[in-house]
Write a structure and sequence with these properties.
alpha/beta; Rossmann fold; 8-stranded mixed beta sheet; elongated; ATP-binding
């Protein structure tokens, strides 16, 4: 049978012969994963070297390798091999390896030149997994620095149309062999559980449609719920998800041996690469589950959300692989238009600790040095470095340490790698690491104590009583066995020391060691403060609620106080042995006083205190400055003279530029230690702050050469025709105000100015009683017009004062007519 991809194989070969990087777009069913790699094995430019093809998921990697090997009439491990975590099926004959993405990164770290490899294929690249983006960046650097003969082929069913241009690579496009799919929507979006809606649609499809059914659900819990509801239907109901044993995965992918119809209940792993034979109907629940990292808490949690448009298209296409099919979308057609087009690249959303450690192992301390499609966000890199430093994996400069290099030998997150590499009890570490990676084997409501999970695993493994879900315990044991093999230890089924469990968790989650908060008469029991500064609480009545200290593994930080789901007790002496005495000087906003003491501290946890007799001046100044920044400049008292000085300098800064210092609130708060530091050394209370004389400190900010200019350009007073010296009121951003009695300006034609004659003042002309009667910056115009209207009103109200017909010639005065005559 001819596959659509074969029509473009010559074009792909020619492009790879001429270019180091090529992009191939081919729709599902074209054969890009299961046929094209075999056609490339004997190309002249490959020169007998091997091909590595990356698949984003283990299920797909195994299935694709099996299909490729079948095409050669061989078993996996001969010409075609596969490598996934803890499983390698290759031999000396293998020339085409199908691997998951982390495997390639490991190989690059050990052999940057990829000796013996001539082509790397990145399949299903549209998913933009973190490892795929990292692999592409490393491969492009290898091509540029070490291997100009290394080829890279980027393949996917759907691609960003700008990708070829962004990579500077030619694009080869293949037609598909998809049959028409009748897409059916619901009239309105359903309510309730997604598994209930999926089950109803599956039952309908079994009655009305032909062929096997592939139903998409967000996770294992929903798959199991749907499978339980479908028990008894006239079909083989089979789950399909990443952690399923290999034999059960094969059952889902292959036709039923008894010829029955199949209903495959799958997670999003079935969207791409996998071909499930016989599928004519797709039921799309419209949800997917993915990891979401919160840099504010340093936690990653699984979130369930709407499927994206590109994923929905991929899912629907599964129904048209071999014949016309049907896709039931369990949402309305109106909602379809509102779905996001695609998920953002995982690199922009994920926990970057594994990537940051990989980069350090590669010798890159600045991620910007690599040729990324989308560079990792610097803030997330900073968060990752903080964690890795706490695991002793990086030094202060971001370079990898010997301990960090050891962590790269463990195919898992650096947290668990640190637990496995540093544990005193390796057998217990293997069990704990496996339990942390797998789903909880105990039913909901079992409490947060990790020791109960270890007891359940070890009891089941020893063949004794079984507590917990056997299928989950089997997966945990398979994983623990892999870790024990790597650590070269035998299993241990003895009851674990709870404190030893806490110490293991602390190796993986150092920022989640926690101390109990104070409780009154048992109230608020079970509330803890984490070393990272967050608060967290156990469920009410949990057996660990009375612990003095905990090491926390799993928690949810969705609220103001997180909820602890998995933890182990920790010996407070263990914390104290790793804590250090630190001088703690802080401002107590409640009492308005400075507190000074020494604290035995581990992160945010204060384990003990003692008086601090000699308070370092720098700590005192910083504490008070931080308090002023937190509460505001109102903690300081600006005298009228200090306020006037600030206003004059700020006005000149606006008029004449940045040679004049910035005395705004923001600038003064930012530089408190510089201009007020010596004064803050004498402060112990809020009253001390209020008594500080700020004027000398502010004056010290004015360069000596500007002091005389200040008085010349922004004088505090102006002389007026009556002989009075009148104070000016400066307001930055506005003209200075000169409030003066109208009669003192008789005969003055032009408005007074400051700023070397450039800035007219704003005259507030006052009545004899000192009340404003006119505001102007054009005194000449006032005498010629508005004065006569004002005169009519004021002459009757103040008859003892002069109100001449001609203000230009009358003598200016601040007195009444009688006193002026004397």
């Amino acid at each position: 049978m001819t596959l659509p991809i074969q029509t473009v194989v010559p074009e792909v070969k020619a492009a790879l012969a001429q270019h180091p990087l090529v992009v191939l777009q081919a729709p599902p069913g074209a054969g890009k994963s299961t046929a094209l790699p075999l056609d490339l094995l004997h190309e002249e430019w490959l020169a007998g070297q091997s091909i590595i093809m990356l698949q984003p998921r283990r299920v797909a990697a195994r299935a694709v390798a099996a299909r490729l090997a079948e095409g050669l009439g061989e078993a996996v491990g001969e010409t075609v091999g596969s490598r996934v975590r803890f499983e390698s099926r290759v031999s000396d004959r293998t020339r085409l390896e199908v691997v998951t993405e982390g495997i390639l990164t490991r190989r690059l770290q050990r052999d940057p030149e990829l000796s013996g490899v001539g082509l790397v294929i990145l399949d299903e690249f549209h998913e933009r997994s973190l490892n795929a983006d990292l692999a592409l960046a490393l491969l492009r650097e290898v091509q540029g620095a070490l291997r100009d003969d290394l080829r890279v082929l980027v393949m996917s069913a759907t691609l960003d149309p700008d990708l070829p241009a962004r990579l500077g690579a030619p694009l080869v496009e293949s037609a598909g062999r998809a049959y028409p799919v009748d897409v059916r929507y619901l009239p309105t979006d359903p309510t309730g559980r997604v598994e209930d809606a999926v089950v109803a649609a599956v039952r309908r499809a079994l009655d009305t449609d032909e062929g096997d059914i592939l139903a998409f659900l967000p996770g294992v819990r929903e798959i199991r719920g749907a499978a339980a509801q479908l028990a008894g239907v006239d079909a083989a109901v089979l789950p399909l998800y990443g952690d399923l044993p290999l034999a059960e995965q094969r059952r889902a992918l292959m036709p039923d041996p008894g010829g029955r119809r199949k209903v495959v209940l799958a997670t999003s792993i079935a969207e791409t690469s996998l071909t499930i034979q016989g599928v004519r109907v797709v039921v799309d629940g419209g949800q997917s589950r993915r990891q979401q990292f919160d840099p504010a808490t340093g936690l990653t949690r699984m979130v369930t959300g709407r499927v994206t448009q590109d994923a929905a298209t991929q899912r629907a296409g599964r129904a048209g692989r071999t014949a016309p099919g049907v896709c039931y979308r369990l949402w309305s057609e109106r909602t379809q238009a509102l779905l996001p087009a695609a998920q953002p690249p995982e690199l922009l959303m994920a926990d970057l600790a594994p990537l940051t450690l990989e980069l350090a192992g590669w010798g890159t301390t600045d991620p910007a040095d690599l040729p990324w499609l989308d560079a990792p966000p610097p803030t997330r890199i900073d968060t990752a470095r903080t964690l890795l430093r706490s695991l002793d994996a990086l030094d202060d400069a971001g370079r990898i340490t010997p301990a960090g290099t050891r962590l790269l030998d463990f195919p898992t997150h650096p947290r668990l790698a640190h637990l496995l590499s540093e544990a005193d009890d390796a057998a217990l570490a293997a069990d704990v690491a496996a339990l942390l990676e797998e789903r909880d084997p105990l039913p909901p409501g079992s409490g947060a104590d990790l020791s109960e999970r270890v007891d359940a695993l070890r009891g089941w493994r020893a063949g004794g009583r079984t507590r917990g879900e056997v299928a989950v315990l089997e997966r945990v044991e398979r994983l623990s066995k892999q870790w024990r093999r790597l650590l070269k230890v035998q299993p241990d089924n003895a009851p674990p020391d709870p404190y030893a469990l806490g110490e293991l968790l602390a190796l993986a989650y150092p920022e989640r060691v926690a101390l109990a908060r104070e409780s009154v008469a048992g109230l608020h029991k079970g509330r803890f403060l984490l070393a990272g500064g967050q608060g967290a609480a156990l469920p009410e009545g949990d057996a660990l609620a009375g612990a003095r200290a905990l090491a926390v593994a799993h928690l949810n930080m969705t609220g103001a106080e997180g909820r602890i789901f998995l933890a182990a007790p920790l010996n407070p002496a263990w914390l104290a042995a790793r804590a250090t005495w630190q001088d703690a000087v802080r401002w107590d906003a409640r009492t308005g006083t400075l507190l000074a003491q020494q604290e035995l501290r581990l992160g945010a946890l204060a384990l003990d205190t003692r008086p601090l007799r000699e308070v370092p001046a720098d700590l005192k100044v910083k504490a008070i400055a931080d308090a002023v920044r937190a509460e505001g400049l109102h903690l300081l008292t600006f005298s009228p003279a200090a306020s006037a000085f600030r206003a004059r300098v700020q006005s000149l800064r606006e008029w004449r530029g940045e040679e004049w210092p910035d005395l705004s609130d923001a600038a003064l708060l930012a530089t408190l230690e510089d201009w007020l530091g010596s004064g803050l050394e004498r402060v112990r209370t809020r009253d001390d702050l209020a008594r500080l004389d700020l004027l000398p400190a502010l004056q010290s900010l004015l360069p000596w050469n500007l002091t005389r200019e200040l008085d010349e350009l922004a004088p505090t007073h102006l002389s007026v025709p009556s002989g009075s010296r009148v104070r000016l009121e400066y307001r930055p951003g506005e003209a200075p105000i000169l409030a003066v009695k109208l009669q003192e300006l008789f005969g003055l034609a032009d408005t007074p100015t400051v700023n070397g004659g450039r800035t007219p003042v704003l005259l507030h002309l006052l009545s004899p009683a000192g009340r404003p009667v006119q505001v102007t910056q054009d005194l000449r115009s006032f005498w010629n017009s508005s004065y006569f209207e004002v005169r009519k009103d004021l002459r009757g109200r103040y008859p003892k004062h002069p109100w001449p017909d001609d203000p230009w010639t009358h003598e200016p005065t601040r007195w009444t007519k009688r006193r002026a005559e004397k």
